[in-house]
Amino acid sequence: MSATERGRPDGLFVGLCTLDVIQLVDHVPSSNEKLTAREQTFAAGGPATNAAVTFRHLGGTAELLTAIGSHPLGLGVTADLNRLRVAVSDLAADAVEPPAVSSILVTASTGERAVASTNATGHRLAPPDDLDALVADRDVVEFDGHHMELAVAVARAARAVGRTTVLDGGSWKDGTPDLLPWIDVAVCSADFHPPGVSTAADTLRFLGEHGVAWSAVSRGGQPIVWAGPEGGGTVDVPTVRVADTLGAGDVLHGALAYYLAVQARAQGGHLSLTSEGFVRALRGAAVVASRASASFGTRAWMLEDQAATGSG
C-alpha cells in the first residue's frame, strides 16, 4: 500500500462474491417465454463485494474477504475487482468449481429486479491465519451475513481491537443471532425479519436488545428509520427516477461504511459515534445509493461520476 493510500479511510468487507449476469428486460418472462433483453452487463457482485467497490470508489481503500476460486469464471470476477482496485483475499483460491452466479432480470419500466443465485452455499470458510493483523489495520469492518462462521470470527477479532463493525442486514439468516453481539452498527432492509418481528420499529428494538448500539431500517424510497442510545428518528431519501434497484442497498452500506470510516479516522481510528454523526453518515449514504439507482447495472453510476469529475 502506498503512502497516499495509507491516508485513506480503510475498510474490510466480509461476505459474498458472485458473478452477476444482469439483463434489462421489458418484463420478467413467463413460463416457456423467450424474450430479447434491451441491455446486458456483467460484474463481480454480492452485497459485501458491491459495498467494497463503493467504498473504494468514494476514496477509501477496500479489501474483500470472500470465496471465489480458480475456475475461469472466478478469474474473471477477480480481474474485475482488480480493475476496480479492490484488494481480494480469496479463502477458496484453490477451488475449481464455478463461483456463485447471480442471474438478474431488471424490469425497464420500474427498475425492479428478479434474482436467482446459489449465494454462499458452496463454501465453508475458515478465518485467515493473519486475522488479528487484518482487522487491526482497518477503520471499519463490514459484513453481509454470508459465510456466517467466518463473519462471527472476524467480528469478534474486530471488536477485540476496537474497530467499528457494520452489518448489512439484507435478510435474516441462520447464525445471525451469533453475529449480532459483535456488531456496532446494523442497517437492515425492510425484508430483514427476526423471528416474530414484522415492523421496522420492532426490528430496531430487537437489534438494540441484542447488543447493537446503532441501527436503521431502509425502505426503498421511503425515509430510513434509525435508532441509537440517544434516541432515534428518520433520514429522508432523495427522490430520483429509479432505473435499477439492483445493488442499491449494497451501495448504501458501502457508502455508510465509508462515511463512518472517515469519522473514525478523524478520531484517531476508534470511532465514538453520536446521533449527529450517525445521521450524517446515513444521509450521505442515502444520496450515493439514490444516485446509483438512477442508472442500469451496478457500475454505470461510477462511470458517470468519473466523467463528471474527469477522473479515471
Automatic annotation (TrEMBL):
Chain ranges of the Carbohydrate kinase PfkB domain: 13-298
Xref: Gene3D superfamilies: 3.40.1190.20
Keyword line: Kinase, Transferase
Molecular functions (GO terms): kinase activity
Name of the protein this chain belongs to: Sugar/nucleoside kinase (Ribokinase family)
Origin species: Streptomyces pseudovenezuelae
